[in-house]
Design goal:
The longest helix has 17 residues, at 31-47. The protein folds into two domains: 10-162, Glycogen Phosphorylase B (Rossmann fold), CATH 3.40.50.2000; 178-357, Rossmann fold. The chain contains 13 helices and twelve strands. The chain has helices at residues 31-47, 62-65, 85-99, 111-119, 152-162, 178-190, 216-230, 243-252, 266-273, 285-293, 306-309, 338-341, 345-357, and strands at 22-26, 52-57, 73-76, 103-106, 124-128, 139-141, 199-203, 233-236, 258-259, 278-282, 297-301, 316-320. A six-stranded parallel beta sheet has the order 3-2-1-4-5-6, with helices on both faces. The chain has a six-stranded parallel beta sheet with strand order 9-8-7-10-11-12, sandwiched between helices. It is an alpha/beta fold and 358 residues long. The radius of gyration is 21 Å and the shape is globular.
Length: 358
């Protein structure tokens, strides 16, 4: 990953642990983005070791943060739901006001986060001066062109370090606890997964759009090789929205694969992923989760940019398509999908074997 840029705070202000006993973090809204903020959250914890740290997030990412040891409490931003619309925002601001937070660090870039914490009467409000919200922040970090071009992990780390937070290393950032291990054992039994078997997770979907998705038949071919040559058991992960891609992977494989799409909660998917010896994925939220768990991860990139969004962790490898137009960052390929066509089954299988030896 790129080096962390040095950024400035308006007025040279830095956060100090003294007097901050109750700290709110406004988290990001999507699974992959949440994972990429984990090193920044670890820096906040290291700097405020005695503070109670609560994080405000949308319900669909809460299960990721339940495996983060640096957060004491998860507050749910229920929109859609009771916090939707102006009336809902006023309600949420009132709920936060009752908590009497000393400070808020806004990892989310939107102006809404600054408005909400200002309405809640939180005296210290820190974050990037993005989305024209700088005047609402007491500690506004200048978001430079340079920092917008680095990996998203370092984008968030640069912001909190500008505020005075201590740096931390990037390692296995999600750590299943004792209850998670019990849940994993129950799920292993429920899905007839034998202890000691070599489990391979695959995530052939991608919420952002089809331009991020490698071909299902090639996922199926990689699965066949891993099963026939290594006696692996292949698990297909995804949401109900990934149903079509997963059915096509299963249909192209010569073996029976375990289809988990839409059949588990996010927490259940995560604890099962933690038992995998290998994970093969498109650029997706689950790819980031696998890397953060420390699972050897093969990440397939076509339209998106691994410089800024490759998986975190030290046991990952990127297989990148070869095309002059990549990365285009488009949801749908406007030309011939050459970036994904250029990635062969052998490319991904070779990367998988490399990661298994790492």
């Amino acid at each position: 990953m790129s080096d962390i840029p040095l950024l400035s705070v308006r007025g040279g202000k830095r956060l100090r642990p003294e007097g901050v006993r109750n700290l709110l973090i406004r988290g990001t809204n999507w699974i992959g983005d949440v994972v990429m903020t984990l090193p920044a959250i670890a820096s906040i914890r290291k700097t405020f070791p005695d503070a109670h740290i609560a994080i405000l997030v949308k319900p669909w990412v809460a299960d990721v943060l339940r495996l983060c040891p640096d957060v004491d409490e998860i507050l749910l931003y229920k929109s859609p739901g009771i916090h939707a619309g102006m009336k809902g925002k006023v309600r949420l601001a009132g709920e936060l006001r009752e908590r009497r937070f000393d400070a808020a660090i806004l990892l989310q870039n939107a102006i809404e986060a600054a408005i909400l914490t200002r309405m809640a009467g939180i005296p210290i409000r820190a974050g990037y001066n993005s989305d024209a919200r700088g005047a609402l922040l007491t500690h506004a970090v200048r978001r430079t062109r340079e920092v917008r071009q680095v990996h998203q992990v370092n984008y968030y780390r640069a912001m909190v370090q500008a505020l005075g937070c201590e740096p931390t290393d990037i390692g296995a950032m999600l750590k299943p606890g004792a209850e998670d291990q019990k849940l994993a054992e129950r799920l292993m039994s429920e899905f007839s997964l034998e202890k000691g078997s070599f489990l391979v997770g695959m995530a052939p979907g991608a919420a952002y759009g089809p331009a991020k998705m490698w071909f299902p038949e090639r996922f199926g071919a990689v699965a066949d090789r891993l099963i026939s040559e290594l006696n692996a058991r292949v698990l297909l992960f995804g949401s109900s929205g990934d149903r079509k891609a997963i059915e096509e992977v299963q249909g192209s494989s010569s073996f029976s694969l375990l289809d988990l799409a839409g059949k588990t909660s996010l927490r259940e998917a995560i604890v099962l992923m933690s038992r995998c010896g290998l994970f093969v994925s498109n650029d997706s939220g689950l790819m980031h989760v696998a890397g953060a768990l420390g699972v050897p991860t093969v990440a397939i990139f076509g339209s998106t940019n691994p410089v800024t969004t490759s998986p975190s962790g030290k046991r990952t490898i990127v297989v990148r398509g070869k095309a002059d137009c990549s990365p285009c960052l488009k949801k749908v390929c406007p030309t011939d999908f050459q970036c994904m066509k250029s990635i062969g089954v052998e490319d991904v299988y070779r990367a998988a074997r490399t990661m298994m030896k790492a």
